[in-house]
Amino acid sequence: AAQYAAERGVLLVHASGNDGKDLGGGNNFPTDVTIDGSMVSTWLEIGASSSDAAALAASFSNYGDTEVDLFAPGAEVTSLAPGGEIQTANGTSFAAPVVAGVAALVMAYVPELSAADVRQILLDSATPFAETQTPTPGGEEMVPFGTLSVTGGVVNAAEAIRLALERADS
Q1: How many CB atoms are located within 10 Å of the residue 15 CB?
Q2: How far is CA 95 from CA 6, 15, 108, 142, in A?
Q3: What is the rounded distance in angstroms from the CA atom of residue 37 to the CA atom of residue 32?
Q4: Do the beta carbons of residue 152 and residue 146 sit within 8 Å?
Q5: What is the percentage of the chain residues whose pLDDT exceeds 90?
Q6: Which of these, 129, 125, 128, lies nearest to 158 by C-alpha position?
Q7: Is 13 helix (H, G, I), strand (E, B) or coil?
Q8: 9: left (phi over 0), alpha (psi -120 to 50) or beta
């Protein structure tokens, strides 16, 4: 299904999960690897960041230096809940919609971009925190944030729009 969607120009944004585990050490489903072993070209795997400078990666977020593409705010997110209530909660299921929203914004500003283009723009425009030390999610060992994802960064809407406009003009 993911390959079918990618072949039709759909950007797939997936929450990495809330187990505080390294996805390089086991299976996580759904995944961007198809039955035949090929990669889904328009897939983004999203981890949750926090606003805590001492712990940039949220303690519950799954991570992986080749499995998770980038991080987005996912800790202590205030949102609406059923019945019109307001809640504050945690989860990569909050982080992934942030990235999907940034992708939608990019696509609205520059509709001629393909899903693969938008994916690459989101990766290239992430605010880099590669050298920032953070506790490993689910643990206490301090590691560079750059070891927890492909980009070592957090989604950046303004930079994504700037980069999309720049690439559309070239």
Answers
A1: 21
A2: 21, 7, 20, 22
A3: 9
A4: yes
A5: 87
A6: 125
A7: strand
A8: left
The letter for the amino acid at 109 is Y
| pTM for this model (two decimals) | 0.95
Query: How far is 45 from 78, CA to CA, in rounded Å?
Result: 22
CA atoms 117, 126, 20, 91: torsion sign? negative
> What backbone phi and psi angles, to 5 degrees, belong to 61?
-70, 140
Q: Is the pLDDT of residue 32 over 90?
A: no
Q: Which token pair is 93?
A: 């299921």
Rg (CA), the chain: 16
3-state secondary structure 69-112: CEEEECCCEEEEEHHHEEEEECCHHHHHHHHHHHHHHHHHHCCC
Could you tell me how far CA 90 lies from the centroid of its own chain? 15
User: How do strand 133-135 and strand 127-128 relate by DSSP bridges?
Assistant: unpaired
What is the distance between the alpha carbons of residues 101 and 65, in angstroms, rounded to a whole number?
Answer: 24
Return all residues near 63 (Cβ < 8 A) that are at least 6 apart.
Answer: 16, 21, 22, 23, 47, 57, 136, 137, 148, 149
Give pLDDT tens digits for 45-91: 999 999 998 899 999 999 999 999 999 999 999 999 999 999 999 99
How far is residue 97 CA from its own chain's centroid? Answer: 9
